[in-house]
Amino acid sequence: MPDNKEKFEELAKVIEELKDQPGALMPVMQHAQNIFGCVSLDVQKAIAEGLGVTLSEVYGVATFYSQFKLKPAGKYLISVCLGTACYVKGSQKVLDKLSEELNIPVGDTTDDGNFTLTATRCLGACGLAPVMTINEEVYGRLTPEAIPGILAKYRE
Amino acid sequence: MENMINLTIDGVQVSAPAGSTVLEAARLANIHIPTLCYLKDVNKIGACRVCVVDVGARALQAACVYPVSEGMVVKTNTPAVRSARKTVVELLLSIHDRKCLSCVRNNNCELQDLCRDLGIEDENRFAGSVNNYEVDVSPCIVRNNNKCVLCRRCVAACQKQNVGVIGTVKRGFASAIGSPWGVKLAQTGCVGCGQCIVACPVGALKEKDSIEAVDKLLAAGKHVVIQPAPAVRAALGEEFGIPMGTSVTGKMVAAMRRLGFSKVFDVDFSADLTILEEGTELVQRLTNGGVLPMITSCSPGWIKYCETYNQDFIPNLSSCKSPHEMGGAIIKSYYAEKAGIDPRDIAVVSVMPCTAKKFEAGRDELSNDGMQNVDEVITTRELARMIRRAGIDFNSLPDEDFDSILGESTGAGVIFGTTGGVMEAALRFAYEVVTKKELKEVEFHEVRGLEGVKEAEIDLNGTKLHVAVAHGTGNAQKLLDSVRSGEKKYEFIEVMCCPGGCVTGGGQPIVKADVRAGVNVSALRAKALYDEDAGKPRRKSQDNEELKVLYSEFLGEPGSHKAHHLLHTTYRPRDKYEGIR
């Protein structure tokens, strides 16, 4: 992790600052996620060693709260709206199709680091329901059938 | 005088010490509130809600964590309480793998007890989705999440050991007990102590069963030698309804013979052997400026803990193999020679109070001439299963003696099974070596008992020996930290991995939480060993006659070249994160 050296130094400072506080684990993990974008294995090990807690404890907290990501976000962040209007118009099926096509559960990132799949609340584009965004790009009036074609553009 | 609190439980007036929980106070009124996640001295988190009671508050409260207060009126058996408990258990059953008939804990299961006592009639009341988990098999431990009730007793036991390689992962319906990053137990820094197994109320955790492997050895026509550890005799009787704290040495030997083993030797003999080697090593380290404090090496869970979490103390570990490994090495050399049997036709089966011994037996270092010193390790529980399977009426067996030439033992070897026992046995030897005088009063009470860390200063004719004893790796860690920081200075330390020592090892008969709440299991089983020691004609390892013959005919002196070749070993650092990726 030499390329991350500065980030780990920053994390070490945070741990040093907070380690004597009761319940330091959560705030340290939140800082870590801000620094690294996720709490990966190496980050979790550093936190466990720094705070003198077990890796089990860190991993348990990381998998309990959905705010923590175990992998860095992918190059493309796919957010599918599950707000009321989109949901009524079938966005769950769109989400399921994406999950199937990318072969990852919702909230996860593909192994190649290209795609992260998430579900969001209302994006404010109900007129185009069902809606998803891929990074800044908005896609409306989606059907599950349209998904492979859209993904293909990003896979090149 | 303790500050006492007066309250009423189910109409009974109770006076309980301040700070007691309702659960503890109820026991004083002879009311046993049902529990599941609670385990005295290990887990007290109020999570499972099986112990709910009416304390006059808005909602039912968990008795295991609710403190008593003056004038409190508690009702433990109202319709609302019974209904709530029943619902909790029915919900657990909805995701439980209910293959009770083939479960190792059948008839010794706290969930079964609850179903019976709470009058569960419909196992399928909340039938729905179930999780399907892969069973995790390590060299010592088998973890089956499909039978898990998420009580977290195993997690607490593992944390208490300062190992902490299992925890609760994920949340909601997906929450499960697991190792970090979904790796298998064998890939973690698990030391194999099995304290999780004896903490588990159900069959989610069990030892890696080696009965089939032993069956194969017996069927292959090998000369199969069996040797039980000191602590086994202190607890085996419990499996057959004999009161806790009763030593069953004679019946155990008789049962082993009836199971078809060719010879029944005693690890107590090898414990005496260990004392001569280890005591000699200690005296040499003291006189030659060796690494001090020397730390005992009998407990394989402790060895792996040291190799994994305290690598700087590896040079402090005694180079002695553990007693049963020494026994195996001697069986396949000296005994083979005397009996005129090719050592390759001999198989050694050890019966241990321990699951970590299963891993230990497979270590490359514990072999000679291309043969493992010990071929198979079974726990006390597995031995009991073999005895039951064979239809042997254990309670009616006569008392029989171990076989010569590796069957004699002294009281020093017997007490190896309890915390402080190895230290006391070593002191009985070291005293005479250093002072060249006979030790008249052989009992060292300062190293007995269940305090987490015990210390003593022993006067060896003017030379002061500073010793310490720790049981449970959690306590051992505190002790090592105090040595590392320079705060404490000792010459000799005994560590046993399991709390209470081997008598309460991870391979011993499982004692239910309700029983553990009422009796001190470690103390009772230890007493069985101390009583046996007190009744022995010889109580010092150096007085063991068969052992004297072993040295004069075969090994020469303690610490000789031959003794080193057969009875001593080496250790290696292990990375606790190596398998996690």
Low-confidence sequence ranges of chain B: none
Query: Got a strand count of chain B?
Result: 20
**How many individual domains of chain B?**
3
Largest sheet of chain A: 4 strands, mixed
Q: Name the helicity range of chain A.
A: 40-55%
Using the coordinates shown, work out and report the CATH topology of the largest domain in chain A.
Glutaredoxin
Low-confidence stretches of chain A: none
Outline type of chain A:
elongated
Q: What is the CATH architecture annotation of the largest domain in chain A?
A: 3-Layer(aba) Sandwich
* Strand order within the widest beta sheet of chain B: 12-11-14-17
Shape of chain B: globular
Assigned CATH superfamily of the largest domain in chain A:
Glutaredoxin
Name of the CATH class of the largest domain in chain A: Alpha Beta
Mean pLDDT of chain B: 97
Helix content of chain B: 25-40%
Rg of chain B over CA atoms, rounded to whole Å, is 25 Å
Strand content of chain B: 5-15%
CATH architect. name of the largest domain in chain B? 3-Layer(aba) Sandwich
As an assembly, this protein is heterodimer
**Amino-to-carboxy terminus distance of chain B:** 55 Å
What does this structure look like?
The complex is a heterodimer of chains A (156) and B (581). With 156 residues, chain A is α+β, with helices and mostly antiparallel strands. Chain A has seven helices and four strands, in the order ααααβααβββα. Chain A has helices at residues 5-18, 25-36, 41-51, 55-64, 84-88, 91-102, 147-155; strands spanning 76-81, 115-120, 132-134, 137-139. A four-stranded mixed sheet of chain A has the order 2-1-3-4, covered by helices on one side. In chain A, helix 1 runs parallel beside helix 3. The longest helix of chain A is centred in the first third of the chain and has 14 residues, at 5-18. In chain B, helix 8 packs across helix 10. The A-B interface holds A 41, 44-45, 54-60, 63-65 and B 155, 159, 163-171, 175, 179-181, 577, 580-581.
